[in-house]
Amino acid sequence: MHMYFEEHSPRQGPVGSLRQRLRLLLLWLIAIDGDEDLLLKYKNYIPMSSMTNYIFFFGGRVRTLRGRRQLSLGVLFIIVVPAVLFSIFETHPIWLHNQGYKSLVVLFYYFWCLTLAMFLMAATSDPGCLPRNLHVPQVSRNFQVPQEYYNIVNLPSIRQDIPIQMKYCRTCRIWRPPRASHCSTCGCCVIVHDHHCVWINNCVGQRNYRFFITFLSSAVMTCILLIANCGTHLHRTDNGSHGTPVSVLLIIWGGLSICYPATLLSYHIAMTGTQQTTREYLVQIGSKNPVMHRIRSNAQNVFDTRQFFKNMFLLMAQVRGPKLMNPRESHPSGDWRFMKLP
Amino acid sequence: MTMSDHTSEETKVLFFNYHEFSETYYADMNNPALPQEHDKSEALIITHFPNVYTPQNTPLFKETRIVRVPRRFEESVRYPNFSELLPGLEPAAIVGDDNASTGKSPSQHTFIARGVYDDGQVFGTTSTSPLSLYFTPEQFRDIVHEINILLEEEYQVFSWWNITDIIFTIVTLGMWIWFSDILQTVRASPPSMHRRKLDLHIEQLNESPLLASQRVQVMHPSRSGYLSLDFQIPKPVA
């Protein structure tokens, strides 16, 4: 099956000088824009880092976007700081309190860890990038795209009255299935594209949607538990807020930081309940700003099952599927997926 | 009938292979070195494409072509599934009068080269692809149907594997993903894991006499991002 790999497996000669070893290590750590001269050039993440806007770390295991405001670092700050303050000032007195609030502390740490893990997974994993150049129409005329490929193609669907629309992505040279779309920020087509999230600095798509939803839900739970823990501490302290100023600070921190994930989560519950992705919803309301718009089901949506919870589950728990472009695999020299066609 | 007619048809949308396109500037079979403009009614229909699964400088690239079987949405939109109609038999396929004169029924259509285009490749003037030289419509339907069934299983949201995957991801704080990724790539893992089932099926299919003896291969759909089911065939000759 994978004969194209076997026949042209990369021939890796002996690694040369110490200097070259160091360069290899550095490239393995951070691949920003693929360097074709190095031995690692047969690893997919090297050409992927120059074809898309991704930077890869640790041999393609972790990714983020380059040239963007790194808002995800700000989110990381908002997640980490209260946990540090909580561990220093709160955990000990609450844990030792004879009324038994240990479970509250344990729950807080569990949800905090879940929030952090899901944030990192949503932000640094593959959202479902599609390979390029799969549907190259011809080699003659400099790989020209024929006129027919510029049309939006209507195909029959499960519902007679609603056709499925297919578009050809001229950047990626593929016929995109419904719900896939090209993200110009990431520089690739993403399968079941929900939206590009600036806060995690990554697209949200088929392969990381469940991490994103779990991140939002656990962030809300973490904030609630933070407020509950600190409230308990405050309540049980004899001289009130004067004795525990950090509790007050953390309650305010929790109260402020719950707003955004809670709002976003309720939007996603309403959107998935009507079987819409964020992108489809924004197209439907014809605005980039979802505030002050009602979320209603779209009559032209073939994916809609008309059952709220079934709709919600089908989208939130959608099968991740395999990596369609695995940065850690190798490829033969001249692999079409990494060719820059005119 | 041209392709744009298919897309503008509003009353009833008909299925066709959207990978096809037509070309009027090509060389005739008896004079392959001299491309010239032809009438629209004589346009070549491009039904096979360069093999993008092997680099351009390999012998395999020069010897083989790819026939792309499109996605269909009439059965379900919930999982990737492909057309079970042999290319050329779709409701809105372009049928010429090649076979009309011989009185053949559409199911007996076979690929007939009518012109030379795209670096010395031969093409016909109908949607019938060279895949018709290797499979009967029934054989083709069976091959794709089996793959569609496995894809439906793999993309089942309400399956024990998917639900376990979600629960374990949450309970283990995401560490389960590493484990499951390893499990799905290890050859010894149980074939009940649906992705392995499809891998095994495609391997067996490619080794089966029907495909192997004719030097036809099915590309694993995950390699094509589940966007099309690609058949690698020997380069068609006149």
Please explain how this structure is put together.
The complex is a heterodimer of chains A (342) and B (238). By secondary structure, chain A is mainly α. Chain A has a domain of 76 residues. Helix content of chain A is 44%, strand content 10%. In chain A, the strands form four sheets. A three-stranded antiparallel β-sheet of chain A has the order 1-2-3. In chain A, strands 4-5-6 form a three-stranded antiparallel β-sheet, with no helix packed on it. Chain A has a two-stranded antiparallel sheet with strand order 7-8. In chain A, helix 4 packs parallel to helix 7. The radius of gyration of chain A is 24 Å and the shape is flat. Chain B has 238 residues and is an alpha+beta fold. Chain B has one domain. Chain B has seven helices and nine strands; from the N terminus they run H-E-E-E-E-H-E-E-E-H-H-H-H-H-E-E. In chain B, a hairpin with a 3-residue loop joins strand 6 and strand 7. The radius of gyration of chain B is 21 Å and the shape is elongated. Chain B starts with a helix and ends with a strand. The interface between A and B is large, with 64 and 70 residues.
Question: Can you summarize this structure?
Answer:
Chain A is mostly helical and 342 residues long. Chain A has eleven helices and ten strands.
List keywords for this structure.
heterodimer, A: 342 residues, mainly alpha, three-stranded antiparallel β-sheet, 11 helices, flat, disordered N terminus, B: 238 residues, alpha+beta, four-stranded antiparallel β-sheet, 9 strands, 29% helix, elongated, membrane (chain B), transmembrane (chain B)
